[in-house]
Amino acid sequence: MQPFPLQTLQKLHLKLFSPTVKDYTKSIVFSQSKFRYNLNMQFYDVTDDFVDKNPKQKKSKVKFIDIPASSSTSPDVKRSEESQSRKSLGQLCLFIALGVIFLGILIFAFLSYSDSYLHPENVKSLSDEQFIEFSSKMDSLFPDERTKILKNLPYPVTKANLDVWAGSAILIDASNGCVLYEKNADQVIPPASIAKLFVMYIVFKDVADGKISLDDVVTLPEKSWAINMPRDASLMFLGQGQIVTLRELLKGLAVASGNDAALAVADYISGSTKAFVQRMNAECEELGLSHTHFVEPSGYDERNLTTARELAAFCCEYIKRFPQSVEEFHSAPSIKYPLEKNLPAWQKERGDSTAIYQKNTNPLLGVMEGCDGIKTGFIYESRYNLALTAKRNGVRFISVTMMGTGVGSKQGNAGRVHDGREMMEWAFSSFADFNPQEKLPEFYAVPSLGTKQTNGSFIKLFPAWNNSLTVPHLNGQTALEDAENIQTIVSIPKYIFGEVKQGESYGQIQYKLGELVLETVPLVADRSYEKANIFGQMLGALVSWRM
Q: Does the pTM of the predicted model rise above 0.85?
């Protein structure tokens, strides 16, 4: 067999790759006798007998023979292909394994990250400085509910038709300052001896600040001696050289309504009566009592002025801040002074024989259930005044009556007793208190997603105000029973997404008695968070699926 001429091979190559033969893909194998062309598992066997279309030249012959591909592959090539195949498969398996591991790491990291949002007990608290700032902001956002001492009931009520004889009166719930009844409560009237409550308030405030002690011995100025006081003034009967403590002077103010004790305390606290009166007026301004003004501390002067509403507000704040004033002083039934221990050395031999016994001037003390204070007052310009308080079953009310009726102390006290009973008995039968702080958590922790903060950020939602709720007697046998049946409906989101603003409402607490909504309190954020970038928001969206 003759070798193929080059021209014949070129023509055969063109024929095999012409458009009519589209599936040919392999290589050409040369030998001296044959030329094979592998085309989709078919081989063309080319010989010298094939002749193409050119009649002038003898051509080689081509015939088709089916031969398995393996028969045309050498053992070395086959081993190489198998090795390459195993290598490719190994690489693929490695790639898949690495992908699975990487995906597992991502899933574990995501679950660990998102799991931190499922543990609200880990929520971080604000620092003391931050919480003070937050509280200050709340005061500015909700001034009526948080800073005003007196306020209206948060639900509509029918005005009470009470038989009150005094010209001016008011009744409040001491726990929250809600006004339950009023009559000419803004009429400006001298407080008379009720002014002494402001003296005691300043003493307790300075004791709380560590400036003085109730066991301090007070040097009595000459102007405070009983012999130097007006003849119609209420007295504790202080005298020259007596040894008396600040505690005893407060009892003289609370029980005997001693004008002499007021002057002695004023000089001890401020150095002079004038300086102390300035302090009294400054305290009134701080408490927002714009119609209350003093010219002297005992209440004897008719130029001392106030209103029933402002006296009630002051008494509410006074008892709330210094409950010991009621427990130790205003509820004391009597006082006996001076005892032997109070006398100067030259009078010691008299013992207790000179002691003067005086009953508490409050005519309802020990007469009306729960009454434990607080202070009477009388001058002709104000008539018979009474700041009264009583507590039953944990519920305390405060009433103030001014311009009381009657001629003489007997009739005046009869009017005080009538009006005090009229308002207090109505209050205890008509209202009770529900204290959310005893029933509900201090705050609610809510996850914050899609913010710049990470690692399980939470927002604390605090009630915008947390005052006790005055519950009306509607359904139960008593007002106390109604207070026990209060429903609290707390509405908070599963999470907060994106920007969070401190002080903004993100939920609410609703208090209901039957179908009546008594009050709705917003739940506000205690901190601010900035919105995250797009990736942080996407991550937050993924975490939200677990909420």
A: no
